[in-house]
Specification:
5% of the residues lie in helices and 55% in strands. The protein has helices at residues 2-17, 130-133, 378-384; strands spanning 19-25, 28-35, 38-46, 51-58, 64-71, 84-86, 92-97, 103-109, 115-123, 135-140, 143-152, 155-165, 174-181, 187-195, 199-206, 213-220, 226-231, 240-241, 245-249, 254-262, 267-268, 273-274, 281-289, 295-304, 318-328, 334-343, 349-363, 366-369, 395-397, 417-423, 426-435, 440-449, 452-462, 468-471, 476-484, 487-494. The strands form nine sheets. Strands 18, 19, 20, 23 and 24 form a five-stranded antiparallel sheet that branches. Strands 25, 26, 27, 28 and 29 form a five-stranded antiparallel sheet that branches. A hairpin with a 4-residue loop joins β34 and β35. The longest helix is centred in the first third of the chain and has 16 residues, at 2-17. It starts with a helix and ends with a strand.
Length: 495
């Protein structure tokens, strides 16, 4: 009897671990958006003489809190494309477009679920137009920072531009505020990673001349003037410091940078040579900069590479790290979450293989790396393995080694790792994969069940149903899909 009770208890635990509930709406062309700690579900509803756009506000328990409708005139819902949305400039923007039309209607709501505007006949080419001709966009409130470069016979000229939103009641158009021209020679790339009301911070890679190396630039947000530049390399040093992540200590007024470090032998920028095959360890740097831009602390850490015993010594293994976050607790312990990417063919494409949390423990005047390794997760590798060269699931590729530094911060159009959590009971992942043959999107969880790691399929939905996922917390997520022509569904996953 006691054994039976234990089995029943374990069965209930497993069932609860992947509990889900659904909510359906009589909507076509539906979609949803996470905004201000609520879920917004929207789509089209045909009435007797017209079509309306219905927008529902829900909490994380899928309870409807409010709704509104916007009349779209005498036009059947079948004449529209799939609706989409964003939260640009901290507003909820729902975009509606008819088939074979080049104009879009924008329904714009604020955080109080008030309709600010219905903006009609916006040309597709002018929709958030700044993104169509600029690169490296960074939004801060109603300001947009972009990096633009021009190339001529003398090389590349980079510019940092600031634009200001004209009105939140019209299509997002901007007026230029200022332009900061970088030094003309030897700038290879520039990356905006932070902005506030006072300053804009950039990571800049200089690949030649007497300023060769990696820099952190601080530019005045109001005037566009350079406040200061901090070189990460010591004088005469040929090591390269790739951008990873950063942490701002507002009390001590310091900024800490963390990323992967390469010696000149490993990565020779000017010759575009990368030699990291079968390296026994990965080097990570931590550099602290004070309020006046001076480097006052600099350390390197060697993380051993742990290859599975089944791997032949003849197999090439190259590892690159993408840093997700850097935190510091009251005791001064740094912890950083890192995505591990690997390739075995010396190409410029790397496949996601694992996520690990590392810790740096203070001991006297230095930090010590808590015992850990760089290793792959064989269940993740198996989940994303595919012999189809056109399959890009979990892959990040760069065009050439001349743009090597962009690997560490470039964004992907299809984010495969939806969530990762590191707990005392083990690590858990929410993963997704696009299946080309089945024409579906797979959503799966990886984590311990009865102390054994298992990969569990949460859902597998045809792409024709336009599925999407939003993570609500470390244990909840929403999967949306257009189940039928007039049936839009939200599924709450407790994983």
């Amino acid at each position: 009897m006691k054994t039976r009770s234990i089995y029943l208890f374990l069965f209930c635990l497993i069932t609860l671990a992947f509990f889900s509930q659904t909510k359906q709406f009589n909507l076509s062309k539906g979609n949803c958006q996470l905004y201000k700690s609520n879920i917004y579900s929207f789509g089209l509803l045909d009435k007797k003489s017209n079509t309306v756009c219905m927008i529902y506000k829900l909490n994380f328990r899928l309870q409807t809190l409010d709704s509104l409708s916007v009349d779209l005139g005498k036009n059947a819902s079948g004449n529209f494309l799939q609706l989409f949305s964003d939260t640009l400039h901290d507003l909820l923007n729902v975009y509606i477009q008819q088939k074979d039309k080049k104009q879009i209607t924008v329904i714009r709501l604020n955080k109080f679920f008030e309709r600010l505007a219905t903006i009609e006949n916006v040309d597709v080419a002018r929709l958030n137009s700044i993104s169509t001709f600029e690169s490296e966009l960074f939004y801060f409130k109603n300001s947009v920072y972009t990096i633009k470069h021009l190339t001529d016979t003398s090389g590349k000229q980079f510019y940092l531009n600031k634009h200001s939103l004209k009105s939140d009641l019209k299509n997002f158009d901007y007026e230029p505020k200022w332009q900061f021209p970088f030094e003309r020679k030897n700038i290879n790339s520039a990356h905006i990673f932070y902005a506030d009301t006072n300053a804009v911070l950039l990571y800049v890679n200089v690949n030649g001349g007497n300023r060769f190396g990696q820099w952190i630039l601080k530019v005045n947000a109001k005037t566009g003037k350079l406040i200061r530049g901090t070189k990460l390399n010591d004088k005469g040093e040929t090591t390269s410091y790739q951008f990873g992540t950063f942490f701002m200590d507002t009390v001590k007024r310091t900024t800490t940078f963390l990323g992967q470090r390469f010696t000149q032998t490993q990565f020779e920028q000017q010759a575009n040579k990368l030699s990291i095959s079968n390296a026994p360890f990965i080097s990570v740097y931590l550099i602290e900069i004070d309020s006046v831009g001076e480097v006052f602390s600099k350390q390197d850490f060697k993380i051993p590479v742990n290859e599975p015993k089944t791997v032949s010594k003849k197999v090439i293994s190259n590892y690159l790290l993408r840093f997700c976050s850097l935190k510091k607790d009251k005791e001064g312990v740094f912890s950083f979450e890192t995505d591990i990417y690997k390739n075995t063919d010396n190409t410029l494409c790397y496949l996601y293989a694992n996520t690990t949390v590392y810790k740096l423990i203070p001991e006297g005047e230095t930090l010590l790396l808590e015992r850990n390794m760089v290793s792959t997760n064989q269940m993740i590798e198996k989940y994303y393995f595919n012999t189809d060269k056109m399959d890009i699931n979990g892959k990040i590729c760069i065009d050439s080694l001349s743009q090597f530094e962009t690997f560490f911060y470039k964004t992907s159009n299809f984010k495969i790792k939806k969530y990762f959590v590191n707990t005392d009971n083990g690590q858990r992942w929410l993963l997704t994969r696009s299946d080309i043959k089945k024409k579906s999107i797979n959503y799966s969880s990886l984590g311990p069940i009865n102390k054994l790691y298992q990969l569990t399929v949460l859902d597998d939905i045809l792409k024709s149903k336009d599925p999407s996922m939003y993570v609500l917390s470390s244990s909840q997520a929403i999967i949306s899909s257009q189940e039928e022509e007039n049936k839009f569904q939200l599924k709450l996953i407790i994983w």
